[in-house]
Amino acid sequence: MKHFLRALPIVLACLLAACGSVATPEWAADVQETQVALAATSAYETSIAPTATATEPPTATPVEPTATPIPPTEVPTDTPELPTLTFTPTAIPTQAAAGASVAGDPVNGDTLFHELRAEVGFACATCHNPASTQRLIGPGLQGIGERAATRVEGQTAVEYIHNSILHPNDFIAPSEDGGPAYPSNLMPQIYEQVFTEQQLNDIIAYLLTL
Question: CATH code at 197?
Answer without folding.
Answer: 1.10.760.10
